[in-house]
Amino acid sequence: MPVADHVMRHAAERPSRLAVCGPEGELTYARLAERVQGAARHLLGLGTGPGTLVAIGLAEPVEALVAVLAADLAGATPLVGDPTWDRERWSRVAPASPYAAHVDAPLPYVPGPDVRHEPRPGDRAWACFTSGSTGRPRAVVRSRASWTASFPHLSDLAGIGPDDVVLVPGPLVSSLYAFAAVHTLATGATALLPGRRPSRTLGDLLTRATVVHLVPHRLPDVLARPGRLRTAVVGGAALDPDAWAAAGRAGIRVVSYYGASELSFVAVDADGGGLRPFPGVEIEVRPAPDRSFGEVWARSPWLADGYLGDAAGPLRRDGDGWATVGDLAEPYRAGEVLRVRGRGDGAIQTGGATVVPEDVEEVLRKVPGVGDIVVIGSPHPSLGSVVTAVIEAERASPPPRALLEATARDGLDTAQRPRRWYAVPSLPRTQAGKPARALVAARLADGDPDIRRLA
């Protein structure tokens, strides 16, 4: 069933129930259903429908959700992007996937008969960008079944029901937060959507919320002033034992999960005992060449179809329905706890975004004077990691930091831009001649005097 149909049903059964609350207003389920119907009629008038793509770049989260649901109701595939992107950037992030409509302003209401769409499980019902992917575009596309059929499992694991008030304190361009918001509406609960900068109002929001979706580095803020909070659903990285203990002291139940935009849910920890397969998921950890850990492979109904326009990316499949994005884990057997050890491709988790180092390196390698470059994550107390660039200079002096930062601003999104810059006479390399990323990170952590910080 399309999520929009869930909204229509909730509007008929509980019309006065608050559906969404954002920075610029709120809508009951009755009003949300009315707005979605009118917006869907507008999109249909633009030629959208099954098999078409609707690009959505709206900063106001309630208006973004109206557009998502309207596209869903019309049978199209919504693709949520960064609201700061201009049309030229949109053409770069998905050049092989033309849009039937580009929504960069709130959709108008068009009167008329109710819109109805007869869905099929294999319909492409959702598309989202992997975080920080504009260096080499990767928009993940999902079937309707892979997108919505996992909703009941999450509801059961986290105990989320129609009487809950669910705080979603992050931008909907993130698949983590987008899933949380859409799941909330499918459930019939109330979604609190503060938008991109919720820190100033977090305390007030927690006096209303019973459930929150967030990334690990935000959990301490929530535990410090839990308000009415009952459950925290945490995704994006592993939780350490101290976080579980702090949540217990605060009286908050934590449901932590591991997954990826391409794989959706893979494993879940609902009691602090460790990650185990999410319902419907099979897991294998296969030996990886030249690595002490193996690659995590998953087989489930929740896997994405792939990337729009057949863009290149970390998703790989075999002939038996298994898929991986190269994440690493300790050896694993069915029935045991899955111990994930990070991304095999060196991806950086920073403030809830996933930055692929090669994307950043591709842009910065074009700066005159850069012989080569390695991008890694450096530990940060609140963001988890910050993007760090280590430049191998072609001459004795590396390019000015101002030039490097200007290039980053022009070619990279905010999450991708390095916050720390270093230079080194020569980068350590593997036997194949490639920069040895892990060795660079280790040398930087050890304070290698040959790696100097750029002022």
From TrEMBL:
A Pfam match: AMP-binding_C
CDD domains: AFD_class_I
Transmembrane domains' residue ranges: none
SUPFAM superfamilies linked to this entry: Acetyl-CoA synthetase-like
Domain AMP-dependent synthetase/ligase stretches: 9-93, 113-308
Span of domain AMP-binding enzyme C-terminal: 360-434
Taxonomic superkingdom: Bacteria
InterPro entries with a match to the protein in the record: AMP-bd_C, AMP-bd_C_sf, AMP-dep_synth/lig_dom, ANL_N_sf, ATP-dep_AMP-bd_enzyme
PANTHER family linked: LONG-CHAIN-FATTY-ACID--COA LIGASE (PTHR43767), NONRIBOSOMAL PEPTIDE SYNTHASE PES1 (EUROFUNG)-RELATED (PTHR43767:SF1)
Protein name per UniProt: Class I adenylate-forming enzyme family protein
Native organism: Nonomuraea helvata
